[in-house]
Amino acid sequence: MGKKLYHGAAYYPELWDEKVIDEDIKMMKQTGINVVRMGEFAWSNMEPKEGQFDLSFFINVINKLYENGIETVMCTPTPTPPIWFTDGHPERMYVERDGRVMGHGSRQHACTNHSYFRERATLITEHIAQAVRSLPGVIGWQIDNEFKCHVSECMCAACKELWHQWLEERYGTVEQLNEAWGTQIWSEYYHSFEQVPQPGHAPFLHNSSLSTMYQLFSMEKIAEFCDEQASIIRKYSGAPITHNSSVMFSVDNEILFKNLDFASFDTYATIDNFPAYLINSDLWRNFKKGKDFWVMETSTSYAASLESYASPHPNGYLKAEAAAAYALGAEGFSYWLWRQQRAGCEQPHSSVISAWGKPTVGYANVLEVEKMRKEIEPIILATRPRQAELAITYSDRAKAFLKTESHRGLNHRALVTDIYEKVLSMGIHRDLIPEGASLEGYKVLLTPFIPYVSSEFLARAKQFVENGGVWIAGPLTGGRTESHTVHTDQALGELENTAGVEVLFTYPMDNSGTIGRAFDVSAPLGMWSSVFEFDQEKSVGMIEQGLSEGKSFINEHCLGAGKIVMLGSMPQGAEGALMLQKLVDHYSQEANLSLRTDVTKGTIVAPRQGDGYSVWFVINMDGNGGSVTLPMEGIDLQTNRKVSPGKLEIGKFEYRVIRINDKECFR
Length: 667
Description:
It is a single chain. The chain contains 17 helices and 29 strands. The protein is of the alpha/beta class. The chain folds into 3 domains: 308 residues, Glycosidases (TIM Barrel), CATH 3.20.20.80; 201 residues, Rossmann fold, CATH 3.40.50.880; 62 residues, Immunoglobulin-like (Sandwich), CATH 2.60.40. Strands 12-11-13-14-21-20-19-16-17-22 form a 10-stranded mixed β-sheet, with helices on both faces. The chain has a 9-stranded parallel β-sheet with strand order 5-4-3-2-1-9-8-7-6, with helices on one face. It has a 6-stranded antiparallel β-sheet with strand order 10-23-24-29-26-27, covered by helices on one side. The radius of gyration is 26 Å and the shape is globular. It is an enzyme of class 3 (hydrolase). This is Beta-galactosidase. It holds the Pfam family Glyco_hydro_42C. GO terms for molecular function: beta-galactosidase activity; metal ion binding. InterPro entries: Beta_galactosidase_C, Beta_galactosidase_Trimer, Class_I_gatase-like, GH, Glyco_hydro_42, Glyco_hydro_42_N, Glyco_hydro_b.
């Protein structure tokens, strides 16, 4: 990989005859598709009968594509085991929480932890890697497809045995597990690891520790499977390996990508939710720091299945999506899919070409993307994405905690996206970073909605603050232990000591009539909240009405050269949004954030760094146009003309690429 920007599509040649394949390749060349992904659902074509492997069809297609200038990302086909694997073997299948056993069909129907599945997955992957390792057309690998997209935690007998092994490795003795989980409650006490159940069907809710730990167990096991597959491929191929994931799936992306070579994601966000598209780029850029990511799947126009469909993109939006992805660090931008499927459950899904071989409603937009790709390719290849100065912590582990303790439907992805959207609309360049990411180079760190703060994270965040950073923690951060229990020394555990606050109460403020005031704004407060003792010097936000009137909900604490800010409650409504933005603005100014512009809402600036210069990609995402102020004279790299300092107007779904000297790139 490298030396180019990739513009691709998922391709399923096993579904078509040779004549259609030849037509597809011809049209791909005309369209500008220079890479395809294939093989992820073709296990039955590669091993039609158990032990009978035949990769010749795919070898021929890969070679034919390469002869026409189209490269291949080869996939392992493990999400769809063939009928010979499943027929008559319910013990190999995924089991739902209510005990229902999956049958053959659809995908992800097998348990990926079953020993025979692992054995057959190893064999098919080894045969694929051996067969295609010397083909010049294979530039990368994708393991499986969208782990845990349709399923989450399997409850089969094989998983139960592995669960007990995992618990023993984690806790050492069952007595330590009992102590950590507080199992004296409701007579849950266990005398051996073998007695610990899976969190299946129950009359009421399971112990929080049981539910959350089983999720973490499942996340670790799917990452383990991914690592096994990668190690097999690496015996035969030096091409980089990825997996296509999402913040929506029941995985821990941080550990999933740890041992892979590059990160890639799927997204089908519609224009009315474009921040949910952008947040992926700002997060996936940081799973493999310094390496380009791929948008492995997105729709040319709309997502659809037999039971649902999304609104089509307006003309021009796809180009804006692709420009944003490339500017924010993508090497590849790929569609699902090339030719519409004529059968199966995703027949209605948008594509580049229809099942009958004609351009679809999104085709003209694909051509726009290709034109744009060619134009910006030399600029992208000569620059790198700028690291932001403000980071928002994203945690799939926190996602598990909030799945267990969702209260009124709390969802980590949606909650963080809401915070992200507010920062985005302020024109602040931002990174989303996993919990284990380095904090070097950041000035402001936001850590919202992370119930468990590890001692390791706390130590790094404390050092970040002592070195001059501003850490804004909360809401819903720090209130649970590693085993998902309540702290017994103080409400927020060690975080409370580090942040220099005293939590008096924690309770849900929704519909309680609680009003808080901070930064000259009064707003209703909601969600599960922490109330602090009022301190004249430390209190930034005061509760002026409600059960805890006169107490504090925002406290700041100086530590070393920096500051910890505790946000104890979530401001609500329009006034709450304004309060949050004023909070971020206040501390961004205190931290002297420079990577910020006055870009209008709905338009973004994606800054990239060249050798002694910066490049601003200014992209309108909402179709309403926008503007940004240039601090000094620049060069429009599309026209090679000078651009005067001052307001730069951006049209509907337009992108502009402006080169500016480093001295005054941002205000």
